[in-house]
Design goal:
Blueprint (H helix, E strand, L loop, with lengths): L1 H15 L6 E11 L2 H4 L12 E9 L4 E7 L5 E5 L32 E2 L3 E5 L2 E5 L45 E3 L8 E3 L21 E4 L2 E8 L8 E9 L3 E4 L2 E4 L5 E5 L10 E2 L4 E2 L3 E2 L14 E2 L10 E2 L14 E2 L15 H4 L16 E2 L6 E19 L5 E19 L6 E9 L2 E9 L1
Parallel strand pairs: 15-16, 18-19, 20-21
Antiparallel strand pairs: 1-2, 2-12, 3-11, 3-14, 4-10, 4-13, 5-12, 6-7, 7-8, 9-11, 13-17, 14-15, 22-23, 23-24, 23-25, 25-26
Length: about 450
């Protein structure tokens, strides 16, 4: 009997278990929204007013290092938009690390589209890395008085728009800061032609386009962490476009123990050598994240409650059982109880209706949520004033705890703290006057 309950609970725990991957999340930050002043510049190329600059960060467990972003024969590297990407014609680069700090002062260079592994620029012996603007407290060297005003010589400089969609203005926080652990051994493939030295992808200024798709490209270094070790967020791309972006990324991460692991946006034939991370595919998939519904999935990135349709009601669905639950939609056969066959349980506890008629107690329809983690609520409806108490039993019939409720009547709700119970199936038995009623629940 004990083994049956362990199997049942194990199946539920497996369903609700959360991933322990090195990747905690991917953050898409709206870095800047261009305005008419920015669009007036012709030196850097055509930048439409209303274009948005996004920065993509991979957040890892503290101590992990990002060492590579790639596409190979089994995993496509894809970055796309519904409109063309902007690349600065003047001093833009394929990789953010190659833009010198002084060039950030020119026209719209700071909005260039590029890839990176953390690093954004360098000045003499100082190297800068990407950091969320909300975490950047060392000021800014981008935009406003730091900008040359572009080809139109805009007074007070470009990149001064304070559109609320982009949060903190660039003139206050540029999303760049320093740290002491500088990665080395940079290498890349699939972006810049080895003979001509020209980048004809969307990250270069030669080609205007709205997507990069490759099964033979990579950017890698010796491994980089985030500027803030605890959050460990590493910048991997800056994208400027007026369209809606999407991407599929594949990365290599040096784990805390030193092993190198691959995380991919889509599974393929080499599934044994890679780890699937839904965070690496954008737009993120949203759905039901409420475990009380059949549609629940723990792997979803974001919640959409409208996709939760069918509430789970656990119980015995065999109409021949004495504890048949007409409201159940998920059958647990081991819960079913029959005279002479009740899986070693006390049938008087499971099916008190066999010996007790004319009950005034009504636990249906509300004992919720079920299954539950920390707390359940019992809703009791009584016609008359009655001395009432409830008792919680484990699957072997042992009392876990009980509570006298005193004399009650009408509709009453009681919250039960079940946080200290072990995972398993439990029975709540309600005593009121000479009457008894019971209901089961699962503790996750």
């Amino acid at each position: 009997m004990k083994r049956i309950f362990i199997i049942i609970i194990a199946s539920f725990i497996a369903t609700y278990a959360q991933s322990q991957d090195a990747i905690k999340k991917v953050i898409v930050e709206t870095y800047y929204v261009s305005n008419a002043n920015d669009a007036s510049d012709t030196t850097g190329g055509i930048l439409e007013s209303g274009s948005k600059t996004y920065r993509i960060y991979i957040q890892m467990k503290p101590g992990c290092k990002l060492t590579k972003i790639y596409g190979d024969i089994n995993h496509t590297l894809k970055i796309a938009s519904t409109a063309n990407f902007f690349n600065n014609l003047d001093r833009g680069k394929t990789f953010g690390k190659d833009i010198s700090k002084s060039n950030y002062n020119n026209n719209t260079v700071a909005l260039d589209t590029w890839l990176t592994l953390g690093e954004t620029t360098k000045s003499s012996a100082i190297t800068y890395f990407g950091i969320l603007k909300s975490q950047d407290n060392n000021g800014s060297f981008v935009g406003g008085v730091n900008n040359d005003g572009g080809s139109a010589g805009i007074i007070n400089g470009l990149l001064t728009n304070n559109d609320s969609l982009a949060g903190i203005p660039l003139t206050i926080a540029d999303g760049m800061d320093t740290m002491t652990n500088i990665p080395g051994n940079w290498s890349n493939n699939g972006f810049i032609d080895l003979i001509s030295g020209v980048d004809s992808t969307i990250f270069g200024s030669v080609k205007i386009g709205n997507e990069f798709i490759s099964n033979n490209a990579y950017l890698q270094n010796s491994g980089v962490t985030g500027v803030i070790p605890d959050s460990n967020q590493v910048l991997v791309a800056q994208l400027t476009t007026k369209g809606d972006i999407s991407f599929e990324l594949n990365v290599e991460i040096i784990e805390i123990d030193g092993t190198v692991s691959k995380y991919v946006a889509n599974k393929s034939i080499d599934s044994l050598n890679t780890n699937l991370s839904d965070w690496l595919k954008y737009p993120f998939e949203c759905g039901c994240k409420d475990p009380n519904y059949f549609e629940y999935s723990p792997d979803l990135i974001c919640s959409d409650q409208s996709k939760c349709h069918t509430l789970i009601v656990l119980g015995c669905m065999d109409s021949n059982a004495c504890n048949y639950n007409i409201n159940a939609n998920y059958n647990i056969q081991s819960l079913c109880c029959y005279p002479g066959m009740c899986a070693d349980r006390d049938i008087s506890l499971v099916c008190p209706s066999l010996q007790e008629k004319g009950l005034k107690v009504n636990l249906n329809p509300n004992l919720y949520p079920n299954p539950a983690y920390n707390e359940i609520t019992i809703q009791i409806s009584l016609k008359d004033n009655e001395e009432t108490k409830y008792v919680v039993y484990n699957s072997l019939g042992k009392i876990e705890f009980e509570m006298d409720l005193g004399v009650i009547s009408g509709l009453n709700n009681y919250d039960l703290n079940i946080s200290k119970l072990k995972q398993g199936i439990y029975l709540v038995r309600l005593f009121t006057g000479n009457n008894v009623s019971s209901k089961t629940f699962i503790k996750l």
